[in-house]
C-alpha cells in the first residue's frame, strides 16, 4: 500500500461527500449569521477544524479498535458492506435547521465548534471516517485526510459567504459520491 493512499483517499472521499451535506449548509448559515463580526470567518474555520479533528479522531480510533476484534476476512466484508451502505446513504440529501441556535450567543468559534461537533455525530462523513480507519491501518493519515476533506469542502463556503449550495448540481454530485463509495467497496473486496 502506498503510504499516501489513506491520506489521499480519505481527503478526496470526505471532500466529495461533504458537498451539499448538512455541515456544509451549516457553514453557510454560520458565515451569514456572524458576517457582521470582524474575524468571524477565521473563528468559524478554526471551529470547523478543531471540531472535525476531535470528532474524526474519535471515529477513526473506533474504526481501528473495532476492526481488531474480528477476523481479517470478516473485517474485509464488513468494511466493503459499509462502503456500499454509505453509497446508498449519500443519495439521501441532508437538510439543516435554520432556526436560531442558543449557541450563537457564545460567538462564532464556540458556536461553530459545538454545532459542527453535534452535526457530525452519526453523519455520513463520520461513518466514512470509521470505515476508512477500519480499511487502512493508518489512523493519523485517515484523520488528517478526513479533516482536510472537511476543510476543502467547507472553507470556501465560509470565505465566499454568499455561496449557495443550490447553485451546485447536487444530484449529480451525490450520485458521483455514491459511485465513489461503491468503488471503494468493490476495491475492498478485490484487494
From TrEMBL:
It is found in: Membrane. It comes from the Bacteria. Pfam families: GDT1. The chain crosses the membrane at residues 43-62, 74-91, 103-119, 139-160, 172-190. Its main location: membrane. Keywords: Membrane, Transmembrane, Transmembrane helix. It is a multi-pass membrane protein. One of its GO terms (cellular component) is membrane. One of its GO terms (molecular function) is metal ion transmembrane transporter activity. InterPro entries: GDT1-like. PANTHER family: TRANSMEMBRANE PROTEIN 165 (PTHR12608:SF1), TRANSMEMBRANE PROTEIN HTP-1 RELATED (PTHR12608). Belongs to the GDT1 family. This is GDT1 family protein. It comes from Shewanella psychrophila.
Amino acid at each position: 500500500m502506498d503510504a499516501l493512499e489513506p491520506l489521499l483517499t480519505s481527503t478526496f472521499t470526505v471532500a466529495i461527500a461533504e458537498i451539499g451535506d448538512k455541515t456544509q449548509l451549516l457553514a453557510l448559515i454560520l458565515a451569514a449569521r456572524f458576517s457582521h463580526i470582524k474575524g468571524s470567518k477565521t473563528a468559524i474555520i478554526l471551529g470547523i477544524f478543531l471540531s472535525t479533528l476531535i470528532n474524526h479522531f474519535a471515529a477513526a480510533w473506533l474504526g481501528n479498535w473495532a476492526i481488531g476484534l474480528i477476523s481479517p476476512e470478516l473485517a474485509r466484508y464488513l468494511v466493503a458492506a459499509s462502503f456500499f451502505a454509505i453509497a446508498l446513504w449519500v443519495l439521501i440529501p441532508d437538510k439543516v435547521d435554520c432556526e436560531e441556535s442558543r449557541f450563537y450567543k457564545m460567538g462564532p468559534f464556540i458556536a461553530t465548534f459545538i454545532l459542527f461537533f453535534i452535526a457530525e455525530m452519526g453523519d455520513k462523513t463520520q461513518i466514512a471516517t470509521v470505515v476508512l480507519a477500519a480499511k487502512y491501518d493508518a489512523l493519523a493519515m485517515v484523520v488528517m485526510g478526513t479533516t482536510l476533506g472537511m476543510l476543502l469542502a467547507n472553507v470556501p463556503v465560509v470565505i465566499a459567504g454568499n455561496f449557495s449550495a443550490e447553485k451546485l448540481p447536487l444530484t449529480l454530485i451525490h450520485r458521483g459520491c455514491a459511485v465513489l463509495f461503491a468503488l471503494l467497496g468493490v476495491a475492498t473486496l478485490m484487494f
